[in-house]
Amino acid sequence: MTRTIDRREFLRNGLRVGLTAAVGGPLLRPFADHPLLGLAKEVPDIAVVEGDDYGRNALRAVELLGGIERFVPKNSRVAILANVQSSHPGTFTSAIVLRSVVRLCRQAGAKEINLVSWQSLKNWESTGLARVATEEGATLKLIERDEANFKPVPLPAGKALTEARILNVLFEHDVFINMPVTKDHAGNKFTGTMKNLMGINSPANNRTFHKENWQTDSSAIDHLDQSIADLNMAVKPTLNLVDATEFITTNGPFGPGNIIKPKKVVAGVDRVAIDAYCAALWGLKGEDIVMIKRGQEHGLGRYDLKKVKIKEIRV
Amino acid sequence: MFFGQAGTSVKEGPLFSLLPDRSELKGWVEDGDHQFFEGDDLFVYIDGGAEIYFEYGFGRVIVQDYKNAAGSRLSLEIFEMNSPESAYGMFTFKSSRRGEAVDLGDECQLADYYLNLHKGRYLVTVTGLDPESTPSDGLVSLAGIVERQIGGQARRPSLVSLLPEEDLEPQSLKFFKGPLALYNSYPFFKEDVFAFQAGIKADYTNGCALFLFEYAARQTAESRFSEARQKFSAEPKYRNIQWDGKKLRAHDEKGLTILARLSGRYIVLVLGECPREKAEALLARAAKRLAAQKEEP
Questions:
Q1: Which residue of A72, A94, A151, B29 has the fewest CB atoms within a 10 Å radius of its CB?
Q2: B49–A195: do the CB atoms touch at under 8 Å?
Q3: CA of A253 to nearest chain B CA: how many angstroms apart?
């Protein structure tokens, strides 16, 4: 079932919305590796801020990484990928955390801040994230699930996935901020930065991550996790900022399930390290999550947290 | 042909008819339109998490949100599963050990901010979308209205009755129809080594968990158990593997005790932090209970 969102509907809801219908955009404009990144030697690989004010946690986490200017150049166009998979508590990116990040981008002088998604407007509204867009002057770019709206990206080093199909609109941006909520997943046990990138890949392509005969094929979970690691070679987020404030540890990714409240925001560039850190928040080991191991094998980062510089503070 | 509301199709009808009538919704009103998903369309609704429903046997689902004057919101999901066993299995998968039993349907459980209920082949989930302000009586009364619309009653799968009752934690049961649900309870192996027809896990107050895996015939159980023994020996996370010709003993990487044996067309396995003698006693009790059952044809 696919729901088509039209402009009149957006306007009716009082949102600033852009409907991207298709085509264009330069192929694989590099998001990360802003020149200033290499200059900051003392910043941690992962910044973790814990506290009751989740918005402040997000601000401080970015500050610990050297400030938003490291990631968002003036006059840049910023794409943000939040998780709005479900409106059940503990399954979507916190509106408070998202609001802080949008404000930071604006403070850095971003020319455009777009929340990109192929999820439905209903998801954005019921999670309260559409309201953040309206109130903070960001644009909600909801893309139809039409395959024409996704650009093929070959993955020659992919082991399970040889081609990703990434949202065209993403390539019209200079900066890509990946903002998942970490949580349980009934298949591979864990959701974090790497799995969230399925939100910019086409739903049809995502379906190939799940084998047709997954019920009888013993390698189905391995295939899913390998596909996610492969997908992560297509795009490197400029910044990952994970909502680990309140999330489900059972019945993921959709919920409802048991919620724990570490009250943390976790930020950094190394997706593998961040995912390993977040997995440990509810007793999982990075090396036990196939996706995290495969991510390291692809050179996307390191899951051995002893080798990662982590700065943790409580505010 | 439409059922009560414009835009409701024939195939939605039976589930649509289970949604509460507006006159019954005391203090609650619909928040937006209902949604309906059938078969593979579940991937659209539960993107990335639909597999577990398919493993248990999914038919269709209708979803309707509600709100009250205080601004609280509830989401009602009515899943029509393929059989009462499918609904029971999904119910146990979604239920929380910390939940509180409620006298509704075949079984109902209220957790912090959500409620799950199964009756016949239906699974009903009511979720408070604003946990801090979710009135639990709102969850229960909405579920109660739906429950009254569902006819019939179902018995639990026969595996449940094979569990030793002494020290059993009744809220802990997890019924399996496939490897994904088992993997979520305890990841014995990444591959589907046990390949059971049905399975169940129950926690006991002494810290042990009991797993029963059921097969169509004794021969199948024997062959699966033989393969499992080899896999336990080959998997690095298992240590201190011992086999005395009848029972397998091992520890996992966290030091949890594992004991396993065959009993007719069942594999019986005990896992836990419980002392070895308690684990042995539970294994023996379970095997004795199974032995008292009629053998397969």
A1: B29
A2: no
A3: 6
- Which run of H or of E encompasses B83? none
Fold of B158-291: Protein Transport Mog1p; Chain A (3.40.1000)
List Cα–Cα distances, B58 to B25, B42, B53, B65, B158, in angstroms. Answer: 28, 9, 5, 21, 21
Q: Encode A246-278: b = buried (16+ Cβ within 10 Å), e = exposed.
A: bbbbbbbbbbbbbbbebbbbbbbbbbbbbbbbb
Does B55 contact A at CB distance below 8 Å?
Answer: yes
Q: Which CATH class is domain B13-149?
A: alpha beta
CA distance A100 to A132: 10
pLDDT value, residue B154: 80
How far A218 CA sits from the closest chain B CA (Å)? 4
Give the 3-state DSSP-derived string for B190-215, with helices as H, strands as E and coil as C: CCCCCCCCEEEEEEECCCEEEEEEEC
Assign A295 to helix, strand or coil: helix
Domain boundaries, chain A: 46-314
Selection from A282, A201, A214, A202 nearest residue A247 by Cα:
A282
Q: Quote the CA–CA distance of A90 and A226 in Å, as a whole number.
A: 26
Query: Which H or E run contains B175?
Result: strand B174-176
Residue B241 DSSP code:
E
CB nearest to B190's CB, from A1, A221, A253: A221
The segment(s) of chain B belonging to CATH 3.40.1000.70 are: 13-149, 158-291
Encoded amino acid at A59, one letter: L
Stated length of chain A: 315
The model carries a pTM of: 0.89
Q: Which fold has domain A46-314?
A: Rossmann fold (3.40.50)
Q: Give pLDDT, residue B74.
A: 96
Q: Are A87 and B76 in contact (CB under 8 A)?
A: no
- The answer to whether B3 faces chain A, any CB pair under 8 Å, is no
Section A230-246 average pLDDT? 98
- B187:A189 CB<8 A: yes
pLDDT score at A17: 42
Interface of A with B in 161-200 (CB under 8 A): 185-187, 189, 191, 195, 198
- Strands, E assignment, chain A: 17-18, 46-50, 77-82, 112-117, 139-142, 150-154, 163-167, 175-179, 239-244, 247-248, 259-260, 264-268, 310-314
Q: What pLDDT digit, counting tens, does each position of A157-198 carry?
A: 999 999 999 999 999 999 999 999 999 998 888 999 999 999
pLDDT of residue A212: 63
pLDDT by residue, tens only, chain B of 297 residues: 233 344 566 667 789 999 999 999 989 999 999 999 999 899 889 877 888 999 999 999 999 999 999 989 999 999 999 999 999 999 999 998 889 999 999 999 999 999 999 999 999 999 999 988 878 889 999 999 999 999 877 889 999 999 999 999 989 999 999 998 999 999 999 888 999 999 999 999 999 999 999 999 999 999 999 999 999 999 999 999 999 999 999 999 989 999 999 999 999 999 998 888 999 999 999 999 998 875 544
Which of A209, A224, A189 has its CA nearest to residue B182?
Answer: A189
| Start-end of H helices in chain B | 13-16, 42-45, 51-56, 84-94, 136-149, 158-161, 179-185, 218-234, 276-291
Give the residue-averaged pLDDT of A87-113.
98
Cβ–Cβ of B113/A250 closer than 8 Å? no
How close does chain A come to B222, measured CA to CA in Å?
20
